[in-house]
Write a structure and sequence with these properties.
mainly alpha, about 500 residues, about 50% helix, two-stranded antiparallel ribbon, single chain, extended, 22 helices
Amino acid sequence: MAGLGQKLEVRQGQGLVMTPQLQQAIKLLQMNNLELNEFVEAELERNPLLERDERSEAGGEENEPPAKSAESSEELSFDGAQASKASEALDADSETMYSDSRSDMAGSGSDSAAGPVDWSRAGKGGSFDGEDYDPGANSSRAKTLSEHLHDQLSELALKPADRLMAAHLIDLADDDGYMRADLGETAQRLGVTVCELEAILDKLQTFEPAGIMARTLQECLALQLRAANSLDPFMAALIDHLPLLAKHDYDGLQAACGVDGEELDEMVAELRRLTPKPGLAYGSESTRAIQADVFVRERPDMGWSIELNTETLPRVLINNHYAAEIAGAARKDAKAQEFISECSQSASWLVKSLDQRARTILKVTSEIVRQQDAFFAKGVAWLRPLNLKTVADAVSLHESTVSRVTSNKYVATPRGLFELKYFFTSSIASADGGEAYSAEAVRYRIKAMIDHETADDVMSDDKIVDRLLADGIEIARRTVAKYREAMNIPSSVQRRRILKRTG
C-alpha cells in the first residue's frame, strides 16, 4: 500500500469575487428612481468630494457645456482598465445601445421662451377678499384623514382624559378609516376600562365622513345608513347577511330579510351606494406616487422612441479641484490621505455606476419594446410570450441582470403605466401549431368574453375552452378556472344570478 504524502500544487482558475464595487453596482441596478435618489442623497452627505450637477437644473444650459477651468467641477475620467472593470461589474458593455445616450440622459432641452411679460391678466382668477378665492384649492397638499379627525376632535367638548383617549384612537385608525386595533389591549395599555374606551369610540363614529372609525364592514355600512336615517330592521337584516349577498344568493336574502324580490333589489341598490372604505377619500402621509423610469412614445414613422425619465435621475459630479486642495493639505496625515483616497474611489465608482445603470435600463427596455411591438400598436390581446432568457440573450446580459433591471421599474406608454415585469408572460400553445399565445393575452380574451355575456348566454368554463380552441388557443379547463379566479370573476352560476337580477 502506497504511503500518504503532502505536496504543494499551483492551480489557476476563475471565480467571481463580490468586491464592494460590484456589490454597489448590483445594488444600484435593482433600485427604482425613488430609492436611487435616497441613496445618492446619503452619499452626497457622506462623501465630501461629491456634489450635484447644477447644470441639470438650469433650463437650457444642458446643451452648452461650461467652460473648463482649474476651479470647476468635472466628471471623473476613467482610463481603459477602470472603464472595463466598471462595465464588467454591471454585466453590460458601456458602448452598446447608447448612441443617443447624451440626448436621452441630458434631456432634449427647450428653447427659452423669455419675452415681454403680459401683466394685464394679473389678478384674474380670484383674490383674497373675493368670492372666487378657495383656500382649499390653493393648499399645498391634501389633508390627511388623521388631520381631518383631529380637527373635529378639537371642536368636541370632552374632559382632558377623554380627549387623550380619543386622540389615541384616532392615531390607531388605518388609512381606510377602520379602527382595527384591539380595544381590550388598548384599554389595558391606557389604564382604562373597555367600556370607557367604547364610549369614546361611539363619539368618534359620529364624525365625518359617515362610517369612520368602524371596526367591521357591517358596522361601517350601518353607521352610514344610520347617518342617512335609513337603518330600518330590514336593512339591518341585510347587513347581517352580507355573506349571502357576496354569494348572490338572493333567495336566501329574501327569506332572511322578509321582503320580496323588488324590495330586495331596492335595498341592494341602496347598499351599493355606500362607501366601504370612507377614509380613502383623504390623503395619506405614507402614500408615494409611482414615477416612470422610462418613457415610450410613438414616432411619426410609426416606430417607438425610448427615453429615460431624466427628471428623476440623480446627477452627481466629482469636485476635482476640492479633492486636489484637501489632498495637498493632508499630505502629512496618513489617516487623512487614506480617507481622501477612499472617498475618491467611492465617488468614481458611483459616477460610473450611475451612468452604466442608465445605459443598461435603456438597453433592456429597448429590447422589450422591440419584442412587444404588437402590444404597443394594437393592445393587450397582441402581447407575446416573453421570458428573461430571450431578452438576456438579445442584449448579451445575464438573466439575473435583466431581472434586476425590470424589478420595480416602470415604463410610461401610450397605453398606460406598466411595470417592466408585466411584459414577461408564460406561453400557451397554439392549437394549429402556430405561434404561441401570451398568458396575459389569453386572460384578456377570457375577460372580454365574459364581459359580453347576457342572461341567456352565460358561458361555463368548458364553453370558454371550446371558444378559445375555435380561435386556435389550446388551454385546459382548470387553467381557465385559475385565470378567472385570479381576475375575481365569479363562476357561471353566480354570473347568471347577477345578470338575471340586474336585467
